[in-house]
Design a protein that fits this description.
Blueprint (H helix, E strand, L loop, with lengths): L3 E6 L2 E7 L2 E4 L5 E4 L5 E3 L5 E7 L2 E2 L2 E2 H11 L7 H25 L7 E8 L8 E10 L2 E9 L2 E4 L7 H6 L6 H5 L3 H21 L9 E6 L1
Antiparallel strand pairs: 1-2, 1-12, 2-13, 3-4, 5-6, 6-9, 7-8, 9-10, 10-11
Length: 218
């Protein structure tokens, strides 16, 4: 229920995220809302965290966990990869408890959670994008960490861009984005998101919102 587009540019990082959330009630009724912020930016502007998959853990929103982490100041004096490792330590037990609970209650569409953490601190020489991803099944909790370059397409809404990207293959190259300013990247990501919305409507599906939220780090 998400589409997050992240681009590593020549002067920073641009992030574009949809706003849709989904709730299914015990009677089977499904409710969609388009007011969910999926991008959290630190007050100093150096780091942003984006969420996909499960967005509430132990009755707290993902955004509250990010706010609590920032307020703890335990990230101060760390470079981006140190912050990423520390954020994992800060949040992982809550992720495990929530995903395990979802699995045991047969919530098959709620057993994954991911965070994109990106930016450049005063201790980093380059802007960086990294993704942390957890899933839970009968084998327990699984974790993956991956560094990204160029254009990053995250979430199930990525399927709406497959044909567009195949028809415009240069968009999917590192060189395309590393020559681009974040200001221009905002326009390109808006164009990509609009193409995803058109495809979503053609398929009469509900995976992403029509509107997006854009943040740049430079």
């Amino acid at each position: 229920m998400t589409l997050i587009l992240t681009a590593l540019c020549k002067d920073g990082i641009c992030i574009c995220a949809d706003k849709r959330s989904k709730r299914q009630y015990d009677n089977g009724r499904i409710e969609y809302k388009d007011d969910l912020n999926k991008i959290y930016q630190f007050r100093n502007g150096e780091v942003a965290i984006c969420n996909h998959g499960v967005n509430e853990m132990q009755n707290k929103s993902w955004e509250t966990f990010c706010s609590d982490y920032e307020a703890s100041n335990r990230w101060v004096g760390k470079n981006l990869f140190q912050i990423i490792d520390d954020f994992r330590s800060f949040i992982e037990s809550n992720i495990q408890q929530q995903l395990e609970d979802n699995f045991r209650h047969n919530r098959s569409d709620s057993t994954t959670i991911g965070f994109i953490i990106c930016g450049k601190t005063s201790l980093d020489s380059k802007f960086k994008i990294n993704e942390l991803f957890w899933s839970f099944d009968s084998g327990g909790l699984h974790f993956e960490s991956k560094r990204h370059y160029g254009l990053v397409r995250t979430g199930v809404g990525n399927k709406y861009l497959e044909k567009y990207i195949n028809d415009n293959s240069s968009i999917n190259t590192i060189d395309f984005w590393k020559r681009m300013s974040t200001r221009k990247a905002e326009k390109e990501l808006n164009k990509l998101f609009a193409a995803a919305v058109v495809e979503k409507k053609r398929l009469t599906e509900e995976e992403i919102s029509d509107e997006n939220h854009i943040v740049s780090i430079s």
